[in-house]
Amino acid sequence: MRSLPLKLAPGSDLLISLQKMAQEQNSSGFVLGVVGNLSRAAFQCPGQSGPTVLEGNLEIITLNGTVSPNSVHLHLSLSDSACQVWGGHLEPGTLVLKGADLLVGLLDQSLPQDSPDSSQTPRVEIAVLPGCPWSTRALRMLRSLSIPHTVKSIDNDASFKEFNHLSELNTFPQVFIDGELIGGYDELSKMHASGQLETLR
């Protein structure tokens, strides 16, 4: 195992940044430690139909779980300004406030995956804007259906221009299947309603 430090800038999406790191390293691993704060936290509490969202000056207490190129499974605990502790399953839309420093342990071999084809490049690629509610919903849909996917975070002008050139769209998320643009959240929802999305597992 090797350890990799990861420093996140203000506005970074915590979940997307970790999945992007796993994809770039082409490796699976664990979060070993974290220090930082959040401006927005999105997490799934047990028994709730949707994620809980908090905003303000939020301090990260723990972040435990696994990361891989195709999926992220992490549990977050945090404290609000009244020192009340919250926690649950980390969701997209969790944004760094001033900064976050993480240490990730990466394995020499990938973690076991549910699908025998998980070593192959996912057919679905999604470009998202950190903090965008439609991007968050699209990611949640893919994760809840266990659809393998790669995530591209549009966090600078260069990445925006790259996807604008590919799609000629200024809106996000942008979803690609086998390299072809299918649209955004609405088109992804229609594929789910028709049962087409589940065939991409």
Counting copies of identical and different chains, the oligomeric state is single chain
Domains counted in the coordinates: how many?
2
Biggest sheet descriptor: 6 strands, antiparallel
Q: Which bin fits the share of residues in helices?
A: 10-25%
How many helices? The count is 4
Tell me what the structure shows:
Helix content is 22%, strand content 41%. The protein is globular and about 45 Å long. It has 201 residues and is α+β, with helices and mostly antiparallel strands. A hairpin with a 2-residue loop joins strand 9 and strand 10. It folds into two domains: 2-106, Hypothetical protein, similar to alpha- acetolactate decarboxylase, domain 2 (60s Ribosomal Protein L30, Chain: A, 2-Layer Sandwich), CATH 3.30.1330; 124-200, 3-Layer(aba) Sandwich (Glutaredoxin), CATH 3.40.30.
Describe this structure in a few short sentences.
It is built from 4 helices and 10 strands; from the N terminus they run E-H-E-E-E-E-E-E-H-E-H-E-E-H. By secondary structure, it is of the alpha+beta class.
Indicate the topology.
Elements: E1 2-8, H1 14-25, E2 29-44, E3 52-67, E4 72-79, E5 85-90, E6 95-106, E7 124-128, H2 133-144, E8 149-153, H3 157-167, E9 174-177, E10 180-183, H4 185-194
Parallel strand pairs: 7-8
Antiparallel strand pairs: 1-6, 2-3, 2-5, 2-6, 3-4, 4-5, 7-9, 9-10
Keywords:
single chain, 201 residues, alpha+beta, 60s Ribosomal Protein L30, Chain: A, Glutaredoxin, six-stranded antiparallel β-sheet, 4 helices
